[in-house]
Write a structure and sequence with these properties.
Number of helices: 14
Strand order of the largest sheet: 7-6-5-4-3-2-1-8-9-10-11
Shape: globular
Order of helices and strands: EHEHEHEHHEHEHEHHEEHEEHHHH
Strand content: 5-15%
Helix content: 40-55%
Structural class: alpha/beta
Radius of gyration: 20 Å
Distance between the termini: 27 Å
Length: 363
């Protein structure tokens, strides 16, 4: 590494431990045949860089590929991260993101015993799951996954987090799929948007309309004294706590199995030529000079140009527009919760619930 203390805060860092996976999701362009795994020494260097950056709160996410195919390596990386965090006196939260198909009871026991958060990528309904998350032979994965979902919920309960990833061609089903996630038993729900596919105007409109319906459902649940963590709401708290929340280093830095540093969503960029354009360094050589000297300032033309130039590839640009809509709707929803909390006890309690989860690192 070029420096042990980076000049920009890195709050969340993702390590893709392997490129291998048991699924062939339609929105993932990673070449599974490469079967790469991050060398432990490269992971260790990147952890020291990440945890040593400014800021006291650190969030490490292990993903892939499918991290259950490299569970021992994942556990070793997590143990090393905790050693570094303890040495540097940093607060560290850890999560593992999985497609769920290879999860066993022993994995969940280890996760629960070691205070690791677990996220499963799941679309809710059989129609959407089978459309987006396919087996290598092209079959849908819903029927194979459902017994694993039951196991995950039975072992982890409300601590089980679901990554609800919306494909533009399935945006019309989004509200229905959300309700199915609730019916199954999830109370901790994230929302992501697929990159790498064309988002048409009607897809954005369907996405926004369905997200507004989801927000109405959450409000109704609060009125019924039933609280869920809808993760996009936490954007509001992050913007309040981090004045430089716009900087991609804060939340979007990833390490790919070949040792490449890039910003999310590197995995959705379809070919190596385009990936080279969005690489920002490596675990061995560090961050490239362009990003080493800059300081994040919201009103800086240089910062505005940085994001504009990074998210220019079609695979990144169209999905990022959907994310912008998600953020705007979620922030408006939390502003309404804040307003209602002045006169409604249940919304006041819900706001405190969200603030507590944010403080605990649920971001």
């Amino acid at each position: 590494m070029k420096r042990t203390t980076f000049n920009k805060e890195i709050n969340k860092f993702k390590i893709a431990v392997t490129s291998d996976c048991c699924l062939r999701c339609v929105h993932c362009f990673i070449d599974k045949s490469e079967n790469m795994r991050i060398p432990f020494e490269k992971a260790k260097k990147s952890l020291d860089f990440f945890i040593g950056s400014p800021g006291e709160k650190k969030i490490l996410e292990i993903y892939g590929g499918e991290p259950m195919l490299a569970f021992d390596l994942s556990a070793k990386i997590i143990e090393e991260a905790r050693k570094i965090a303890a040495k540097r006196k940093k607060q560290l939260s850890v999560s593992i993101a999985s497609n769920g198909l290879l999860v066993e009871k022993r994995h969940l026991k280890y996760i629960a015993a070691n205070d690791i958060r677990f996220s499963v990528s799941f679309s809710g309904s059989s129609a959407t799951q089978d459309f987006t998350r396919k087996l290598p032979g092209g079959q849908g994965s819903y029927n194979l996954l459902m017994p694993k979902i039951s196991l995950i919920l039975s072992e982890l309960g409300e601590r089980a987090h679901v990554i609800f990833c919306v494909h533009p061609q399935q945006a019309t089903r989004m509200h229905e799929d959300f309700r199915e996630l609730l019916r199954i038993g999830f109370r901790n729900i994230g929302l992501e948007c697929v990159h790498g596919f064309r988002w048409r105007r009607e897809d954005y409109e369907n996405f926004s309309a369905n997200l507004e319906e989801i927000v109405r459902d959450v409000f109704q649940m609060v009125e019924n004294n039933e609280f869920i963590l809808f993760e996009p709401f936490l954007e509001f708290f992050r913007e309040r706590e981090y004045p430089n929340a716009f900087c991609p280093f804060l939340r979007d830095l990833e390490l790919y199995p070949d040792g490449t540093f890039a910003f999310y969503p590197y995995a959705f960029v379809a070919n190596m030529e385009e990936r080279r354009k969005v690489s920002i360094g490596s675990a061995e050589s560090g961050i490239i000079d362009r990003f080493n000297a800059c300081l994040p300032r919201r009103d800086s033309r240089r910062c505005q140009k940085c994001a504009a130039e990074y998210y220019v590839l079609p695979a990144l640009k169209e999905g990022s527009i959907a994310y912008s809509r998600r953020t705007e709707i979620a922030k408006n929803a939390v502003a309404r919760i804040l307003h209602l909390s002045h006169t409604h006890e249940r919304f006041r309690s819900y706001l405190k619930y969200l603030a507590k989860l944010f403080a605990e690192g649920y971001t």
